[in-house]
Amino acid sequence: MASSRHSLPAGAGAARGEADTPSSHVMRFGLDQPLRLDSGQSIAPLQIAYQTYGTLNADRSNAILVCHALTGDQHVASDNPVTGKPGWWETVVGPGKPIDTDRFFVVCSNVVGGCMGSTGPASTNPATGQPFGLDLPLITIPDMVRAQAMLVDALGIDQLFCVAGGSMGGMQVLQWSVAYPERVFTALPIATGPRHSSQNIAFHEVGRQAIMADPDWRGGRYLAEGTSPRKGLAVARMAAHITYMSDEGLHRKFGRALQDRERVAFGFDADFQVESYLRHQGLSFVERFDANSYLYVTRAMDYFDIAADYGGRLANAFRGSRTRFCVASFTSDWLFPTIESKTVVRALNASGASVSFVEIETDRGHDAFLLDEPVLFATIRGFLTSAAAARWG
Amino acid sequence: MASSRHSLPAGAGAARGEADTPSSHVMRFGLDQPLRLDSGQSIAPLQIAYQTYGTLNADRSNAILVCHALTGDQHVASDNPVTGKPGWWETVVGPGKPIDTDRFFVVCSNVVGGCMGSTGPASTNPATGQPFGLDLPLITIPDMVRAQAMLVDALGIDQLFCVAGGSMGGMQVLQWSVAYPERVFTALPIATGPRHSSQNIAFHEVGRQAIMADPDWRGGRYLAEGTSPRKGLAVARMAAHITYMSDEGLHRKFGRALQDRERVAFGFDADFQVESYLRHQGLSFVERFDANSYLYVTRAMDYFDIAADYGGRLANAFRGSRTRFCVASFTSDWLFPTIESKTVVRALNASGASVSFVEIETDRGHDAFLLDEPVLFATIRGFLTSAAAARWG
């Protein structure tokens, strides 16, 4: 039996309170409603932390599910309780914004395996009273989506007007449209792909190895043992962060500019601005993210491969779909390059689905989906407006 | 006063003998011949380990200096004493090969800062009797080249028929042509650039942070303390190795193929072949390379920026040069993309130098310069043959 409550802000970081008592809505599912996992295992009880914005209309037809990326969370359009920073998509979601909360009811939940209140490796294992650590079963993108469907059910929403998200969020969008086509009126996968590439798996593996190489990781039991693999997690974030930007973007932003000095220091301190920028990215990340969650969520992305369940033919996954798709990519994104989006578009065309596609010119790389990109905003606004006209006249 | 000797093979790894008693020729420079460094410091005594192939002709005009890349060494065309594997450029250098040792006298020296017998951080600091560690002054690419010039002087060679190399080796080629234009008859910079880009500095910084995050690094004093930052160095190598390949190449080689199983294992072992491949790259690298050398040599690459000494105008660096250049790049190289080579070519054209340029089609990324690339082989052979005709008729 699902139950919802709003807890007080924990006001603390990922591994310091959010795991069990998140500062957002929480939906709890008991032992009678296990989350069935692709691995064959299941999770029960299950907790899903989520945020909502706007008002659900009378016939519950105006809900938009926003899916977050690897290190995102449910705080889409309101201050993040851990960092104190604005929500991660406030440029897109809010009153009068492209996803207009004056019109739509927006839901975003922390993914299962995450560290912001949904059940994850930092959550308490009821069997031991200790954090799960690696005793939590592996999670996949379809598992995340199955959990979201349980939440959407519990909110009494039958069909989502839209499922939207970028990067790993876009993987969830695609998975929603394949697993629950009748529940997705429109789908907006951004800067994503139908599977994780070999190169992307390789980068994730480097990050995981950096975490697991840190002796403070303690085989995943660092919370119980009072340590934290901060250095390993920071290195993982630094490596990943490079992949979120582009060569051109880094060059424009930093070039070879030095850090507060006129010539190189002939040492191993951060000489170049790009070095201190990266170090800052690494250090600030460990304040807000749980290392084991990083292992779980990267692994979920690695495992993602829609076509694999359809005999290797992606088009078969979308066969008969009546969902309206809008696919967006960015020219300088080399993590999910445009060819990945085009693969989705071709498959949708081959399956006879309704699809529009835009490749947006930018030098900001993969991260562009989180930044001030007017063409993206216009694309989202236009797509939702015309879909709303089709839906409601 | 320089002296040369041939020591017995040490038969051991980088940090296990090669540092002080390398298994190749060694040129020693005494306190009266210090290596002056860009930092203002100097190194004396200095040791340079090198290999030669072929025979120096009577007028000492047929010498080709081959410059190695970041983790390369002097063992170009003969078995590597540490790994037991063939030399790193046996496809290019040897009897009848594109750099034909029946015709040319090939010299290759381990860079200063390296770990295969030239003075580096693993060498014994004469002031303490302990390994230098971070007490060795920082090294730059011009410093490496200055040391090579001391070796070439000691070998009695006035002008090199060619200086050739890829990646960091190519940086040395460019630096030779700028610092000693009259001593370089032809120059063959491959898969390189006139400066290290912001993105490349970023990747190097991740590697250094991974090493320095390893508690067994001990602030650089691991040799004296009997430890080894193996995990950190392996992570650094893994991250770097991805940048040596291409997305297409990784896809062709591994795709999403699983490792010895039919379905994913739902765990953190190496599920995908690309993961076990990367882990192997990391683990085998630590057997042959010194972690502090990795810090020093990556830093040298980061600092490289020829134009900086010429008011930001690269063409001024080559003004008046009579060297014949042949510049080569690879289509899928994203570490030193073709645009970096074109920048060199444009500057050479602007300075009135003689230059030919080829961009070679391949999906093997940056590593292509080390692999079986027939167009590269034909390019090198043709360039050297026509230069030899111009030189000797």
UniProtKB/TrEMBL annotation, chains A, B:
Compartments where located: Cytoplasm
Residues holding substrate: R237, D367
UniProt-annotated catalytic positions: S167 (nucleophile), D333, H366
GO molecular function annotation: homoserine O-acetyltransferase activity
Keywords: Acyltransferase, Amino-acid biosynthesis, Cytoplasm, Methionine biosynthesis, Transferase
Pathway in which the depicted protein is active: Amino-acid biosynthesis; L-methionine biosynthesis via de novo pathway; O-acetyl-L-homoserine from L-homoserine: step 1/1
NCBIfam families (UniProt xref): homoserO_Ac_trn, PRK00175.1
Protein name per UniProt: Homoserine O-acetyltransferase
